[in-house]
Each structure stands twice: as C-alpha cells, then as structure tokens.
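Curious: why this fold?
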Amino acid sequence: HMQLVESGGGSVQTGSSLTLSCLESGNTYSATYTGWFRQSPGKQREGVAILYFRGSSVHGDTTYYPDSVKGRFTISQANAKNTVYLQIHSLKPEDTAMYYCAARIAYGGAWYGPLMELSFNYWGQGTQVTVS
C-alpha cells in the first residue's frame, strides 16, 4: 500500500506562482506513474501533470500534461522518489480547484491513459488552491 499526503495549497492572487508537494510513503518503489489531478465543483477530476518513472537515470522520466496547462505546470520528483512536486506559474482563477496527488503501481489494473483518473490506484486527500 501507499499513502499520499498533499500540501502547499492556499489562496493566491492571479498571476502568482505556487508549488504543491506530495509526500509518498509505504511501498513507493512499486509506483510507476505518479502525478496530479484537480477537481472543481461540478466538474470531473482531470489530470494536469503526470510523471512516468522509468527507473533509469539514463532514460529519464516522461511527463504528461494536457494542452490547457502546458507551459505553466511542471511536475518533478525528489531524488529519493518520495516527494512529487507541482509547480504552477501564472495562476488563473480557472485554476481554482482541489488538487490531488495520485499514483499507479505496476500491473495496477485497467489502463485508460496517463491523464485519466481510472488509471490510478492511490489517492491523497487533496489540497485546495483558490485563485482570485
């Protein structure tokens, strides 16, 4: 099992930047994809930044972003692979949402794509980001 705990959310002004953190514990070695989703009231949960851990410093990791956030969102992982970060720049009011950290383990069931909620097995409780 894995536990995911998000932090770093808050109320910020339009145009500012924010960094969210996700602390992973438990069987983190089993995680393949890890990343961030967000959900606003009345909307579906959407993937905003996903990282595929290749397990090799030679090949590096692969990242996935929807077009709506490319250039403003950056996902990264600490070397110890226990903390995942989401940097958000030029925040907009439409970025207001609950942000969730998620992880998928190897052989973690049906695969719907890297930005799809159903592809992921473990979730944090979320951290709220409000932009005004």
